[in-house]
Amino acid sequence: MVSMGTTGVYARAYDALDRAVEVGFAGGRVISVEFPETVPEDAAADHELLDRIGDYLAGSEEPFAEEPIGLTVPTDRREVLEAARQVPYGEEASVSQVTRMAGLDDNDPEDLDLVTAALGANPVPLLIPDHRVQGGPYATPADVRGTFRRVEGLR
Questions:
Q1: Is this structure's pTM higher than 0.85?
Q2: Which of 2, 29, 32, 130 is 20 to 30 Å from 123 by CA-CA measure?
Q3: Which domains does the chain have, with CATH numbers?
Q4: What are 36-72's pLDDT values in tens digits?
């Protein structure tokens, strides 16, 4: 296994997704999560987070809420993503609810545009569970989103 100061790219294929999950780390913080068709050749496969993702896909309740992430996004988008991260495992929230959770006005079109832009550009889907937000957009691909929702008992 790797240390808390992990830097690099790790990936593993998962049958439940019919694709891989690729996780980028810098200084022990997750900075990217992607879902390529295959495992990149330069990615290592041995990481505890990849084990936990496998457990999650097998039905283990794993909210990933405590996983250290490194967001390099503007502050207003960070607040939206941090609000979306608070939606609990197995529950969902509307875009309007996430907007209010981020301290924004869900009746203000500019605030709603900010929220949808932040969700659509989410650099760490699954760790920031945009699949739990109704009415996206989503950074998580549709087929992966469907699997995550089924795993969590969401329709």
A1: yes
A2: 2
A3: 75-151 (1.10.10.10)
A4: 999 999 999 999 999 999 999 999 998 798 899 999 9
